[in-house]
Design goal:
161 residues; mainly alpha
């Protein structure tokens, strides 16, 4: 699903931003290339949102319009060999935020429920990962977001004894 249009690009960044879509060098942006880039950007966004939301969304938040424009301009600039640091930074920022939405550490204010048990939003949950401890290869421990609770658990086990 395309979340933005060529008009959105002009509204957000002006007509000058479309220089990245001038495929034949005549100073006129290629509308077909813009439409393809916006569709591809929408598909990329959906790949993140589909983890937490039923697609297509009923309403499109302005944040997704911004992300779609930034992703599309990045792709157009990349294919035209006119990529700037600004294009890359905007793309990376959009991608990071979309990953956070997919993980549940950021929200997308759509007013619609996230996919899950029905009408209630799905509570962000990180599944526990059982890994073998480097200290004892035979005993499993839970690693929580890079935090190794093994030393704390070891101290607590001595208190019980």
């Amino acid at each position: 699903m395309a979340y933005a249009t060529q008009t959105d690009i002009v509204t957000l960044y002006s007509q000058d931003a479309l220089y990245v879509a001038d495929r034949d060098g005549d100073g006129v942006p290629d509308e077909a290339a813009i439409a393809r880039a916006l569709q591809t950007a929408g598909d990329e966004i959906d790949s993140y949102l589909g983890v937490r939301f039923s697609l297509p969304l009923e309403t499109v938040p302005g944040l997704l319009v911004q992300f779609s424009v930034d992703i599309a301009l990045y792709r157009l600039a990349l294919s035209s060999d006119v990529l700037s640091d600004e294009h890359r930074t905007r793309y990376e920022d959009a991608q990071k935020h979309l990953k956070d939405i997919a993980r549940g550490t950021a929200t997308l204010n759509t007013g619609a429920p996230q996919s899950g048990d029905g009408d209630d939003p799905v509570a962000p949950a990180a599944p526990a990962r059982w890994l073998r401890s480097a200290r004892n290869a035979s005993s499993p421990v839970i690693k929580c977001g890079g935090f190794d609770p093994w030393p704390v658990l070891l101290q607590l086990s001595h208190l019980r004894a």
